[in-house]
Amino acid sequence: MVVIRDFTAEDKEAVLAMVDAFYHSPAVDHDIPLAHFADVYDEMCGGGSARVRGLAVQQDGKLVGFCALSFSYSTEAGGPVVLIEEAAILPECRGAGLGQALFAFIQNEYRGKAARLRLEVAPDNTRAMALYERMGFARLPYIQMISEAF
Q1: Region 68-73: what's the mean pLDDT?
Q2: Rounded CA gap, 88 and 102, in Å?
Q3: What is the CA radius of gyration of the chain?
Q4: Rounded to whole angstroms, how far apart are CA atoms 33 and 20?
Q5: In this predicted structure, what is the pLDDT of residue 148?
Q6: Over the stretch 104-125, which tens digit does the pLDDT of each residue have?
Q7: What single string gives the DSSP state of each residue in 58-121?
């Protein structure tokens, strides 16, 4: 049985281990310090806040995946935006419909509450892109740019 639920304090060690593995996988194309996720973990628990929320994916009572959401507003979209920051399922559990269950949960949870769901995906992560497209996501023709030196 698949359960999607909010992070709890008790999940922290297991979730951070999965996040660390995700940050060192081909799904991520640049270094991300684990401390960034760890620093906001407590705020993501129990339904999160107006800024962030963490979701745990359980299968038969075992934690097998996670998702981090953040929230913003887009004038382009005309309302609130849910950014799916990270989403991962343990490699040995992939292909069992858990990713689909996670995205269906997010779509149902934010239908009527958000104008847009948005995510990023590394260009080589074709398996994830195929899932996202099956779940109704479309590619944007933008190049994303960041500045962390301000």
Answers
A1: 97
A2: 10
A3: 15
A4: 9
A5: 87
A6: 999 999 999 999 999 999 888 8
A7: EETTEEEEEEEEEEEEETTTTEEEEEEEEEEE-GGGTTSSHHHHHHHHHHHHHTTT-SEEEE--
